[in-house]
Amino acid sequence: MDEKSWDRLLKSIEDGLVVPVLGPQILIAQGSNDSLQAQVARQLLASYNCDPGSNPLPPFREMNEAVTRLKRDHKLQDLYGDIHDAIEKLMPKSEAAMPEPVRQIAAISHFRLFVTLTPDELLARSLRTRCVVNEIVHSPYLPTSEGADLPADWLSRAGEVFLLYLFGKSRPAPMFAIHDEDILEYVHNIIARGSHVPVRFLAELQQRNLLLIGCNFPAWLSRFFLRLTNQQRLSDTQRKREWLVEALQAEEELIYFLKSYSAGTEILSDISPTVFIAELHQRWLTRHGAAEEVTSTQAEVIPRNTMFFISYCRAPDYSVAVKLMESLKSLGIADNEIWFDKSVIEPGQDFRERILTGIRTCRYFVPLISSSADQLDEKFFRREWNEALDRSKSIQGRTFVVPMIIDQAYDPEQYQRVPHEWKDNLHFGHAPGGLPDEQTNTLLKKLIRAERQRSV
Fold first, then answer.
1. DSSP conformation class of 59
2. What is the mean predicted confidence (pLDDT) over 433-442?
3. Rounded Cα–Cα distance for residues 5 and 329 (Å)
4. Is 338 exposed, middle or buried (0-12, 13-18, 19+ CB in 10 A)?
5. How far apart are the C-alpha atoms of 110 and 313, rounded to whole Å?
6. Which end of the chain has fewer CB atoms surrounding its CB within 10 Å, N or C?
7. Can you name the residues that pair with 137 across neighbouring β-strands?
8. 94-126 residue pLDDT tens
9. Cβ–Cβ under 8 Å, residues 111 and 105
10. How confident is the model at residue 237 (pLDDT cuts 50, 70, 90)?
């Protein structure tokens, strides 16, 4: 791309007219040429004592190939859980260890809509360091209650992004695509307007330019996806553009087809996805200043009137708090219904006031109690607790504070710095490691059900 092309792309991004569509080629671990997909595929084969031997897995097609080999002798349904476990095990444990291309593309705050073609949470995790993430999962096999689409007022929701998992999100069940025939079914579901098709999200894609980075689509799927995301036939469209950035050379037949029938589609074959993202990120920072990246990471918009406000001590309990947030989401709570400060540092003064506003407007305040946090006194989470205590004095006849012990042992009496008002009057939930036990899960479901009924 020349300077004029880069400038045209950046202006389109700044105008909110570009949606990145991200595939497996950007999930490259730092200091390695290995993708997350390749690591998962190898671990899957190893778990079944299957040695690739002299028949190596094809680049960025490793998952499909591994599943194809294993399904001959093993139950296909079991492989979904195995792949989910492998993804969970191989996911980076800290933001610093995240693939650099994922962090860089997530940092560009002009992007409000994202599409991921992989089932992992890498992109969602990176996005959550700067904003609220609303996940929309397309899967024909999701329970009816878990269906979601782009809300009609999405543009007015400042500080929120919307992430579409086009081929499902990883779960220990057949609810995400792990091989080519799965992908074919997901495509058919869209064509047939089957279960959980995100119609509004797809309509927005039809009106915006697409930045397809590292997707590694087969030629047939490239053609279908381009047509799906255009309102008119490809040979008629003049208003839209697509950029295809691939690590592998596109098939000659596809190149010929696009040149013949899709003049708005540009194949960037002289730059890899990781290099392209690094260049895009640097050019965006140059135009908007490095300070914007810091601001977008730290000055997170606090949603008002959330259902749950999770209060925790950042240094020792961040990872557990993340697990609890995911547990709440598994019960049907949306991202924008949870206030969760994702920073691991103490907030600045302005941000503190916005956090306290979140406590004053939430429905349920959930303080996480641990022996590590109990040893600390001069931390901001205690200010949060005091704010919740003050508010609880004016709330009568309903639950507001839901204390949650996150240590393995359940012993409310051992904590010396927990407010006595809570110890004397409230039942403590138990979520060891961030995973609520059965009794606590029942309580959370009851609170959620009551809130849903109240809002009807």
1. T
2. 94
3. 41
4. buried
5. 31
6. C
7. 165
8. 777 789 999 999 999 999 999 999 999 999 999
9. yes
10. low
Query: Would 3-29+93-295 and 302-455 be classified into the same CATH topology?
Result: yes
Contact 157, 185 (CB under 8 A): no
Q: Is 364 helix (H, G, I), strand (E, B) or coil?
A: strand
Rounded-to-integer distance, Cα 389 and Cα 398, Å? 14
Residue ranges of domains in the chain? 3-29+93-295, 302-455
- What is the three-class DSSP state of 356? helix
How would you class 228 by CB atoms within 10 Å of its CB: exposed for 0-12, middle for 13-18, buried for 19 or more?
A: middle
Inter-residue contact 274 to 26 (CB < 8 Å): yes
Q: How far apart, in whole angstroms, are the C-alpha atoms of residue 141 and residue 12?
A: 36
* Whether the predicted pLDDT of 212 surpasses 60: yes
Q: Which of 121, 175, 113 is nearest to 144 (CA)?
A: 175
Q: Collapsing DSSP states into helix, strand and coil, what is residue 270?
A: coil
DSSP 114-182: EEESSSSSHHHHHHTTTSEEEEEE--TTS-GGG-----TTGGG-TTEEEEEETTB---SSS-B--SHHH
Q: Tens digit of pLDDT for each residue in 389-407?
A: 999 988 888 899 999 999 9
User: Which residues contact residue 453 at a Cβ distance below 8 angstroms, ignoring those fewer than 6 apart?
Assistant: none
Q: Mind listing the pLDDT tens digit for each residue in 296-344? A: 444 444 555 689 999 998 778 888 998 999 899 889 888 788 988 765 4
Q: Which CATH superfamily is domain 302-455 in?
A: Toll/interleukin-1 receptor homology (TIR) domain (3.40.50.10140)
Distances (CA, A) of 47 to 43, 65, 70, 74, 92: 6, 15, 11, 12, 20
For 108, which DSSP code? -
Is 3-29+93-295 CATH 3.40.50.1220? Answer: yes
Contacts of residue 376, Cβ cutoff 8 Å, sequence gap at least 6: 313
pTM of the full structure:
0.66
**Tokens at residue 181, please?**
């025939």
Question: What CA–CA distances, in Å, run from 313 to 296, 310, 358, 371?
Answer: 22, 10, 17, 11
